[in-house]
């Protein structure tokens, strides 16, 4: 949380890098955002549509216009290590009226199906809200 300006929260900038938790109890870590706006990270989901054992999974994403906007839009893909599925998230990093950062996202979860006849049931959609995980003292 740093020092940009915008209409809602002057002097507060929303920064993607760090550890986040969402309304399902899933946790993710976003590594440094590079000059092009690209980043990597890891995702630990609290839930799964499968019967497989949950494992930490890699994510890759992009943030729009690094350094220009204080509440950037972004997207990232999670390539699940323990299933044949992929989730894409899109969202925006906001600073709320208390000055806390919040990621408002929507996602599409594509599951593997055996054939085109099952395509109709292969995609789930939803929303997640992420807040920053506070470092343990
Ligand atoms: C799978 O079930 O095949 C992989 C795990 C999917 C977890 C989904 S992604 C969207 C939603 N948000 C989360 O934090 N977890 C679920």
TrEMBL record:
InterPro entries: Avidin, Avidin-like_CS, Avidin-like_sf, Avidin/str, Avidin/Streptavidin-rel. GO terms for molecular function: biotin binding. PROSITE patterns: AVIDIN_1, AVIDIN_2. It is found in: Secreted. Pfam families: Avidin. Gene3D superfamilies: Avidin-like (2.40.128.30). Keywords: Biotin, Disulfide bond, Glycoprotein, Secreted, Signal. One of its GO terms (cellular component) is extracellular region. SUPFAM superfamilies: Avidin/streptavidin (SSF50876). Its main location: secreted. It comes from the Eukaryota. Forms a strong non-covalent specific complex with biotin. Homotetramer. Belongs to the avidin/streptavidin family. This is Avidin.
């Amino acid at each position: 949380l740093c020092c940009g300006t915008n209409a809602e929260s002057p002097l507060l900038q929303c920064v993607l890098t760090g550890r986040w938790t969402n309304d399902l109890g899933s946790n993710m870590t976003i590594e440094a955002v590079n000059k092009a706006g690209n980043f990597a990270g890891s995702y630990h989901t609290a839930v799964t549509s499968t019967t497989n054992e949950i494992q930490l999974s890699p994510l890759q994403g992009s943030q729009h216009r690094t350094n220009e906007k204080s509440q950037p839009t972004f997207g990232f893909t999670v390539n699940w290590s323990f299933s044949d599925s992929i989730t894409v998230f899109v969202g925006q990093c906001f600073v709320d009226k208390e000055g806390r950062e919040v990621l408002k996202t929507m996602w599409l979860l594509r599951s593997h199906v055996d054939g085109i006849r099952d395509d109709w049931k292969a995609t789930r959609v939803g929303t997640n809200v992420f807040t920053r995980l506070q470092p343990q003292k």
